[in-house]
Amino acid sequence: MVAWALWDCGSTGLSAIVVTFVFSIYLTRSVGNDLPGGTSPASLLGWALFFSGVTVALLAPVTGVWADAAHRRRRTLAVLTALQCHEELAMHIRVAIHNGLTAQEIAEVLLHTGVYAGVPAANTATAIAQRVLAELGEPAARPVS
Q1: Distances (CA, A) of 63 to 4, 43, 58, 98
Q2: CA–CA distance, 120 with 76 (Å, rounded to integer)
Q3: What tens digit of pLDDT does each residue of 72-93 get?
Q4: What's domain 62-136's architecture?
Q5: Contact between 76 and 113 (Cβ < 8 Å)
Q6: Closest by alpha carbon to 82, among 123, 130, 116, 107?
Q7: Of 29-33, 94-98, 127-131, where does mean pLDDT reach its minimum?
Q8: Among 37, 61, 105, 118, which residue has the fewest nearby CB atoms (within 10 Å)?
């Protein structure tokens, strides 16, 4: 956690310095000397940064939810297995398959959960997963070698 915080701090500072000082000076003195219509390189850079910032602000929540769906499903399967909520597990396995998890990934989640939540909980969850995967016509997971 500390390493991530230090990396994030350093990465953010470096990006700010490069965009603010290095990149802007390079664009205004080297690249932007011959812009048509009397446009200043600094204003062009400002507009580019504005539009890129707005694009990131609008797309980040949507792409973040989309990219994180499989990870949330893994976490949900692990928690439901650990709490032995077997009646909920089948529904969440169906959703996990719909969100793109494979039978192998689901089996790995259940296997790893067994280490922390106990083998009986993982065995019951694995039986439920096998039943649901068979109902969905999904291929069974092969044992991890």
Answers
A1: 22, 29, 9, 18
A2: 18
A3: 888 889 999 999 888 889 999 9
A4: Up-down Bundle (1.20)
A5: no
A6: 116
A7: 29-33
A8: 37
